[in-house]
């Protein structure tokens, strides 16, 4: 079971890293509060991994003190995980405004952005089949004539397909990316919250087993 906890710790580290990359690279969310939950997950994952190793040593040596410390530390980690789940739920409520600000900044920096930045924006629009923040009209400053959008807004992406086609619903997606990005992030955050709660439950089982082991060790001491 302790080895399983180590796997849970590694799982939290991987999930935390993926969420962090997704928020700040794939979706380019700039709000600092967005990093709170993934950073906590990574930190908790690292701590769980080493606590599980500590518990494994304690169980192997049947050391009452080490097992007790294992149970106490695991209890503290559960509290942190529950707090992270609550923080994730709270962040979901402010997600709409965070996405709005991040996508607006994304569009304003597009023309002067690096090739990598533009590729990220284009991939986002192509994958989600959207254009702009709330509509294709958000790209009005993309070209001087105010009627063009990046080619990634096109339903059939070809070179210069976005030139002069901003309001052409047959060629360009008219719906913005805001709702699609918000829905996708909410879904991802929901899975993170569920994962944190499931692992917290498994850790509670670990505490129960630790208490049973402590009781067995104490009984052994009393017999001696």
- Flag low-confidence runs: none
Beta-strand segment tally: 0
Number of helices: 6
Beta-strand portion reads: under 5%
The average pLDDT score comes to 81
- Taking Cα atoms only, what radius of gyration do you get, to the nearest Å? 24 Å
Shape: rod-shaped
Classification by helices and strands = mainly alpha
What is the string of helix and strand elements?
Answer: HHHHHH
Layout of strands and helices, then pairs:
Elements: H1 2-26, H2 36-61, H3 64-93, H4 95-108, H5 115-128, H6 178-223
Helix pairs in contact: 1-2, 1-6, 2-3, 3-6, 4-6
Write structural notes for this entry:
This protein is mainly α. The chain has helices at 2-26, 36-61, 64-93, 95-108, 115-128, 178-223. Helix 1 runs antiparallel to helix 2 (36-61) and helix 2 (36-61) runs antiparallel to helix 3. The radius of gyration is 24 Å and the shape is rod-shaped. The mean pLDDT is 81.
Q: Tags for this entry?
A:
CD63 antigen; 6 helices; mainly alpha; 224 residues; single chain; rod-shaped
Quick overview:
The protein has 224 residues and is mainly α. 69% of the residues lie in helices and 0% in strands.
């Amino acid at each position: 079971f302790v080895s399983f906890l180590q796997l849970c710790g590694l799982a939290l580290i991987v999930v935390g890293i993926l969420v962090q990359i997704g928020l700040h690279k794939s979706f380019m969310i700039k709000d600092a509060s967005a990093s709170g939950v993934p950073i906590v997950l990574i930190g908790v994952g690292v701590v769980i991994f080493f606590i599980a190793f500590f518990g494994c040593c304690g169980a192997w040596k049947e050391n009452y003190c080490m097992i007790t410390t294992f149970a106490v530390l695991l209890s503290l980690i559960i509290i942190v995980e529950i707090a992270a789940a609550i923080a994730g739920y709270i962040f979901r409520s402010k997600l709409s405004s965070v996405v709005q600000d991040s996508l607006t900044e994304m569009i304003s920096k597009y023309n002067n952005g690096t090739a990598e930045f533009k590729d990220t924006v284009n991939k986002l629009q192509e994958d989600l089949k959207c254009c702009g923040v709330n509509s294709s009209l958000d790209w009005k400053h993309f070209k001087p004539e105010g009627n063009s959008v990046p080619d990634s807004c096109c339903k059939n992406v070809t070179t210069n397909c976005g030139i002069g086609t901003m309001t052409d619903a047959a060629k360009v997606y008219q719906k913005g990316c805001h709702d699609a990005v918000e829905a996708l992030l909410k879904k991802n955050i929901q899975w993170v919250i569920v994962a944190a709660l499931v692992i917290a439950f498994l850790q509670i089982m670990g505490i129960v087993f630790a208490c049973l082991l402590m009781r067995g060790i104490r009984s052994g001491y009393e017999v001696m």
